[in-house]
Specification:
This protein is of the alpha+beta class. The protein contains 6 helices and 10 strands, in the order H-E-E-H-E-H-E-E-H-E-E-E-H-E-H-E. A hairpin with a 2-residue loop joins strand 7 and strand 8. The termini are far apart. The structure holds zinc ion (ZN).
Length: 227
């Protein structure tokens, strides 16, 4: 009689331990809403439980973030226009060689931001992270957030070129900036969201900026996100 009770209980307990991992490749599992490394292999695909994509933000586990970013790159959801950026985000290092030869460890917040934006359904081109970005913000003596790996520029969102897309690109540009603004108060709140419009200065787009109060020269063709 005891066996009749204990054996099914044992199987039930075992399945509780194993089930959360069965949908994923060896090495990674989604625990809660986070991709977590549990072994040495990269996942082939990641499926988050229902509700996660609208809820929890990605964890700060750099190995898991890099694995997830590589999946998005392979799927064409994230495109890195600059070869050094792409290499650092897909070779598992999270380190990008800067123009002056210095290896820069990319801010974990930048990587979390990529993952949450892609989870949210945005496909996008990162025109520059470290890339070939200059040290200073154009026209000023201030060191750019790009220089040490704390910022990225987005030039295309959901197939719409921010610069040449004009009116057609405006809705998705605004959706993208609104989502970034919605992170206010979370632990993934950007310090800077900068874009003046789609190829021209647009007050409605300007109103969604963060960290600056007016037009920043050269930002009609991309959205700059800084941490
Ligand atoms: Zn920028």
């Amino acid at each position: 009689m005891l066996k009749v009770i204990i054996i099914p209980l044992f199987i039930a307990a075992l399945s509780l331990l194993v089930l959360p991992y069965t949908n994923y490749s060896p090495g990674f599992a989604v625990v809660g809403c986070h991709l977590t490394k549990i072994g040495p292999y990269a996942p082939k695909d990641v499926v988050y439980p229902p509700g996660c994509q609208n809820g929890a933000l990605p964890s700060a586990d750099r190995v898991a973030l890099l694995a997830q970013i590589k999946i998005f790159v392979d799927q064409g959801k994230i495109v890195f226009a600059k070869e050094n950026d792409k290499l650092g985000m897909t070779n598992g290092s999270g380190v990008v060689k800067r123009g002056d030869g210095v290896d820069i460890t990319i801010d974990t917040q930048v990587m979390r931001s990529f993952v949450t934006l892609a989870n949210k359904g945005f496909t996008f081109t990162v025109s520059s992270m470290i890339g070939s970005h200059s040290k200073n913000v154009s026209g000023s003596g201030n060191v750019s957030r790009h220089w040490d790996g704390h910022a990225f520029d987005i030039s295309v969102i959901n197939g719409q070129d921010i610069d040449t897309g004009g009116a057609a690109a405006k809705p998705v540009t605004m959706d993208f900036m609104k989502y970034l603004n919605s992170l206010t108060g979370s632990d993934l709140e950007p310090k800077q969201i900068i874009c003046s419009g789609n190829g021209r200065v647009d007050p409605e787009v300007l109103a969604l900026q963060k960290g600056v109060s007016s037009v920043v020269a050269g930002h009609e063709n991309h959205v700059h996100v800084g941490y």
